[in-house]
Amino acid sequence: MKTKDTLNRFIFDKAPVRGESVHLDDAWKAILEKHDYPIEVRNVLGEAMAATVLLSATIKFLGSITLQIQGDGPLSMLVVQVMTDKTVRAMASYEDEDLQSGLKNLFGDARLMITIEMENATERYQGIVDLGDESIAAALEEYFRSSEQLETRLWLTANEDVAAGFLLQQMPKESMPDSDGDAWNRFCIMADTLKDEDLISLEVEEILHRLYHEEDVRLFAPDNIEFSCSCSRERIEKTLKGMGHKEVKEILTEQGKVEVDCSFCNHHYEFDVIDVEKVFFDGFTVDTSSTRH
Prior knowledge:
The protein is of the alpha+beta class. The chain contains ten helices and 14 strands. 34% of the residues lie in helices and 30% in strands. The model is unreliable at 283-293 (pLDDT under 50).
């Protein structure tokens, strides 16, 4: 039985190359159950989700790492966020009309952003590259090349059941000066033989055996990945405070209540006039006594 929702890391003992493999099942289906995405949006969101989980193991952080794509096409925004505890959430914002396969058709002119937010830190790191029209994998390879000066290759795929990915990254050669100088190119050529079906159906041990049975590969214990959304009523209240009392009261006057749906998990929040006053005025209470005169 295929191991579900796992992130695996591995290294080559005789070459300065590391790698990862991710296979998302229940976590991916949990997102699809909350949004009825068209196939064109679904597949690219799944690839982005697999990629972001892979990135979470390449960068040391305590907080969150977010992959975001914004463009002027019918698929205007895509966001995937992975937390330190390896929980993940994802969403896409799109228009139903004119959806066609291909990054350029979906996103138009777009940028890919990687944001790392550290716990208890006032600053955050953000790297930005053009999305281009090849693939999310190609854009991320360029991100690592330009921002991290690390040669990196990714292979990504997704369908209605699985989002999966495979990553190789070349480490500084100084860390292993006597290693095979052609190892990086050889390992990438081998990985280029991977098919989407291999990433979807094979265990990581079988993938590594097929590709690198003549190499010394060390596979580490897997990390489990789960879907979880960090939205809460308290976070929504903080957002309302940021909007300002006047603007929120205008919404109340127009609509009778303030309604907010989480874009990630579709959870619905409602605030009536009493809820709003509690948000903006600490200690606000309502007299519910039924005194008669």
